[in-house]
From TrEMBL:
Any one GO molecular-function label of the UniProt entry: aminopeptidase activity
Name of this protein: M61 glycyl aminopeptidase
The keyword Plastid appears for this protein: no
UniProt-listed Pfam families: Peptidase_M61, Peptidase_M61_N
């Protein structure tokens, strides 16, 4: 969207009067000016001005392999720090704190000049979360940045707004997850949004889709632009379905970066995600790539922005498992996949859970398993998805079909998520009990907090839902019972209550 100059001016004035308040004090908007030239795509010159609330400068402390000393700061060369009068300020890197210590008092305005070198792609990023989160320059000269690699900031008031301006060649595009004021100027609404998002710059393809007040930009490097229609069509179906689950779409800007690779993977950020595709037979393997797309998109609500727990690792079974349950179910509800594919997926989740429960030497609970997500991958994803299925069946059964897991998600979003309140296990139990007028405490105690095998609960839920389940060791097979056309399973897969 091109904004007429007059409107832009009004927006700018409004934005510049946006300030953050801390103890009654007005904090000015932070500013970042990023310059990249055609001559060297791997260097970004940054000029920034902001108020430091503590006398430190830092970068996001995660998202890189632990063996890289200083993390993101390794690739940053600070040229100068000056105060509001232009006087130089001394700065020194502190190894223990992993921050730059500034020789300045708190709440001072500073001007900062630094250079970031994009050489992250020389490193193996497996231990940093995979290459979907690693800055790189693709073959078509499109530059992929994670904002945490670019932004040096000062921790403080999280609602601190920032204006980010790009000085790049005229014929380049800039795609970000931030509010767009012009093709080169953007605004982020919090430190989190500023440092935990994606940016694509260069000659890539861009597509904008809008639903209510949610704007989604899809950005693909040129070697994958022939797939942008397919991605757009999938998101056009998925978004209204998510609106049905949560009751509304939030007012937000979102960026989907889709790239071609030899592996498939995805990584979600505050309001963006990057998905890597193997560009082969995409029409036939939607269960894999469309599920990842729907999964990462669902994380915008669950796990990343709204529905979360202060016990981040202890909540993986919910943030990953329920996301997995809903992404696959949404693909079926919207006709992107068929029932056979869906049931194969669900049966596979039961298998992953059961296999990990019978094969681990030491039993662990779903909550504890989150502490070692990589080692307990199958248990967390398979277990969380199985719990979501069992609860969906149980809620529908206890309320005689009046309520479902969708209603539970709606309550979590509207009562807690929208207010950015952490959701504990106790809150989950309380809300489930309230929703269904029954008691889920022992279910949580046995299967989520405790270490009981979920096998019997899965079999019972399938029976109750009208799904025939057979299993041999860790192989599971699911078939809808023909004599139960009005079964709970049928009500789960049919989206009945549309909100308009
Ligand atoms: Zn996930």
């Amino acid at each position: 969207m091109i904004i007429p100059k007059k409107v832009l001016l009004t927006i700018s004035i409004v934005l510049f009067s946006f300030t953050s308040y801390s103890l009654g004090r007005t904090i000015p908007i932070s500013k970042y000016h990023l310059k990249i030239s055609k001559e060297n795509l791997r260097v970004v010159e940054v000029n920034a001005s902001f108020e430091v609330q503590e006398s430190y400068l830092e970068m996001r402390p995660w998202g890189f392999p632990p063996e890289i000393e200083r993390g993101w700061a390794k690739f940053v060369d600070i040229k100068s720090v000056t105060d509001s009068k232009g006087e130089p300020i001394n700065f020194v890197w502190n190894d223990e704190l992993e921050k730059w210590k500034l020789d300045i008092s708190k709440n001072s305005l500073i001007n900062l000049n630094y250079q970031v070198e994009l050489s992250h792609d020389k490193y193996n990023w497996d231990a940093g979360g995979g290459i979907d989160g690693r800055p790189t320059v693709w073959k078509d000269n499109t530059i992929f940045w994670v904002s945490s690699a670019l932004i040096v900031f000062s921790e403080g008031h999280n609602n601190q707004k920032a204006e980010i301006t790009f000085d790049v060649p005229k014929d380049w595009k800039v795609s970000t997850a931030w509010v767009k004021l012009s093709n080169r100027k953007f605004v982020s609404n919090s430190i989190d949004e500023l440092i935990n998002n994606l940016i694509m710059i260069g000659h890539h393809e861009e597509r904008l889709i809008k639903h209510d007040n949610m704007s989604i930009t899809i950005a693909t490097p040129s070697n994958f632009k022939h797939r942008i229609d397919l991605i757009e069509q999938s998101l056009e179906k998925v978004l209204p379905a998510y609106k049905n689950i949560f009751g509304e779409l939030p007012t937000a800007n979102y960026l989907v970066c889709a790239s071609k690779n030899t592996i498939q993977d995805g990584e979600a950020y505050t309001n963006s995600f990057h998905q890597m595709f193997i560009d082969k037979d995409l029409e036939y393997n939607k269960m894999v790539w469309a599920n990842t797309l729907a999964h990462e998109m669902f994380h915008y609500w669950n796990g990343t922005n709204f529905i979360f727990s202060d016990d981040y690792a202890g909540n993986y079974w919910f943030s990953e498992g329920f996301t997995n349950y809903y992404s696959s179910l949404t693909l079926l509800r919207t006709g992107i996949i068929n029932e056979e594919e869906y049931l194969r997926f669900l049966a596979f989740q039961f298998s992953k859970l059961h296999y990990s429960q019978i094969n681990s030497n030491e039993k662990t609970s779903l909550i504890e398993a989150g502490k070692s997500k990589i080692n307990n991958w199958h248990f967390i994803y398979g277990g969380g998805t199985s719990i979501a299925f069992i609860l969906d069946v149980q809620i529908r059964s206890n309320t005689k079909g009046r309520k479902s897991l969708d209603d539970f998600m709606k309550v979590l979003y509207s009562k807690y998520g929208k207010l950015y309140k952490s959701i504990s296990i106790e809150i989950q139990i309380e809300e489930l009990n309230h929703l269904t007028n029954s008691n889920f405490k022992s279910f949580y105690n046995d299967y989520i907090i405790g270490k009981d095998s979920l096998l019997d609960a899965i079999v019972k839920a399938c029976d109750k839902a009208g799904l025939a389940i057979s299993h041999y060791q860790s192989e599971f097979y699911l078939t809808p019972k023909k004599d139960k056309p009005d079964s709970i399973y049928q009500s789960i897969i049919t989206p009945t209550r549309y909100i308009d």
